[in-house]
């Protein structure tokens, strides 16, 4: 009886050793040996191991698996349109935005970080260049055209309609001037100048009328003449005639003495004083964005996320195709050393591989038990 038990126990141990060792060797032969082994010119069977032998095919199939079933346009589209993902991205972008503002960078420093040297000088040069370009562009466009071609028709009509009002204003100012003491003195001076040029006539007038009396007589008459309706009509006709002449002139004729350099210098100075570029570029960005910070966080960042999500969702297939994900996966796996690939697989499935080895031992032991029982009954 003891001999029978020892025989069965021996066969169980041998079966377990064979089963466990067989599975262990089978697992190892997935990776080992890394290179084919030759005896003379004869290649030893099962060398190299399965994965080293099929390394390139494995890389290709995994690449196809990733593109065809894992990183697909639908899966990526579903991810980027997921509400939880969008909310997390909003929180992340807001935190990054606030963190960036805390650095107190100025626009000048930001441009320098972007490899833009001397940003203030370059910005001023750029603005001055644009001013000159626009100035000479406008000048070339309108220089040889008549004023009536340059000014919009509705403007010329409005100016034409304003001529009577302008005449009223001129007459009003003239009456106001000649009614003043300064105007009276001017009348007196003009009369004296007129009569002095006529010799004896001036002496006769002085003898009978006197300088002041003559000015007193002319002043109301001049004012009366200015207020006369005929005077206004005459002035309106003169202004209309002059306006028509001006419209027929070219821009070059109207601004014949124009100095381009002085005009450009004035425009550049005005723009520089208005924009104050140096002050803006040296002001912290956070200070410039304070009035808009809440709007950026609540409106602009969600808008950017929505726009980017829509863009990616519509073009994700093309993007993945251009990224050549399958080729990237294949190249990465092909670049792995066989030892590293083995370590990677074993580290992921270590427990399962050990269990497969143990399962082989258990099955081998069970087979040994069955064989031992059969031997006892047949002996």
Would you summarize the structure shown here?
The protein has 379 residues and is mostly helical.
Question: Any overview of this molecule?
Answer:
The relative contact order is 0.16. A hairpin with a 2-residue loop joins β1 and β2. α3 runs antiparallel to α19, α9 runs antiparallel to α12 and α9 packs across α13. The protein has 379 residues and is mainly alpha-helical. It starts with a helix and ends with a helix. Keywords: Membrane, Transmembrane, Transmembrane helix. It holds the Pfam family DUF445. Its main location: membrane. It is found in: Cell membrane.
The spatial strand order of the largest sheet comes to: 1-2
Could you give a short account of the major beta sheet? Answer: 2 strands, antiparallel
- The overall average pLDDT, rounded, is 82
Rg estimate, integer Å: 51 Å
Low-confidence stretches: none
Alpha plus pi helix count: 20
Distance between the first and last residues' Cα:
13 Å
The succession of helices and strands, N to C, reads HEEHHHHHHHHHHHHHHHHHHH
Oligomer: single chain
Proportion of β residues? under 5%
Any idea what the shape is?
rod-shaped
- Structural class call reads mainly alpha
Helix content: over 70%
The total beta strand count reads 2
């Amino acid at each position: 009886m003891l001999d029978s038990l020892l025989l069965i126990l021996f066969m169980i141990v041998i079966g377990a050793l064979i089963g466990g060792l067989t599975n262990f060797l089978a697992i190892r032969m997935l990776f080992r040996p890394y290179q084919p082994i030759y005896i003379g010119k004869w290649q030893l069977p099962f060398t190299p191991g399965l994965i080293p032998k099929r390394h390139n095919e494995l890389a290709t199939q995994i690449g196809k698996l990733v593109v065809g079933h894992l990183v697909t346009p639908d899966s990526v589209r579903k991810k980027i349109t997921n509400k939880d993902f969008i909310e997390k991205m909003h929180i992340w972008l807001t935190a990054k935005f606030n963190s960036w503002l805390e650095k107190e960078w100025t626009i000048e420093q930001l441009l320098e970080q972007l490899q833009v040297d001397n940003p203030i000088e370059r910005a001023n040069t750029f603005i001055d260049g644009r001013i000159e370009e626009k100035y000479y562009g406008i000048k070339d466009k309108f220089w040889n055209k008549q004023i009536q071609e340059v000014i919009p028709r509705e403007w010329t009509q409005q100016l034409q309609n304003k001529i009577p009002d302008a005449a009223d204003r001129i007459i009003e100012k003239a009456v106001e001037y000649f009614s003043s003491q300064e105007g009276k003195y001017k009348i007196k001076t003009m009369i004296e100048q007129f009569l002095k040029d006529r010799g004896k006539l001036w002496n006769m007038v002085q003898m009978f009328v006197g300088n002041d009396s003559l000015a007193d007589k002319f002043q109301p008459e001049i004012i009366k003449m200015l207020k006369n309706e005929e005077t206004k009509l005459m002035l309106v006709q003169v202004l209309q005639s002059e306006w028509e002449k001006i419209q027929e002139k070219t821009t070059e004729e109207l601004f014949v003495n124009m100095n381009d350099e002085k005009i450009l210098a004035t425009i550049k100075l005005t723009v520089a004083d208005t924009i104050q570029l140096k002050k803006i570029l040296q002001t912290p960005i956070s200070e410039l964005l304070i009035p808009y910070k809440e709007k950026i966080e609540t409106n602009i960042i969600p808008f950017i996320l929505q726009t980017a999500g829509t863009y990616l969702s519509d073009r994700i297939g093309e993007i993945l195709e251009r990224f050549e994900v399958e080729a990237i996966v294949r190249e990465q796996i092909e670049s792995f050393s066989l030892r590293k690939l083995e370590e990677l697989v074993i580290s992921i499935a270590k427990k399962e591989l050990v269990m497969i080895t143990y399962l082989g031992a258990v099955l081998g032991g069970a087979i040994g038990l069955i064989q031992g029982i059969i031997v006892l009954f047949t002996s």
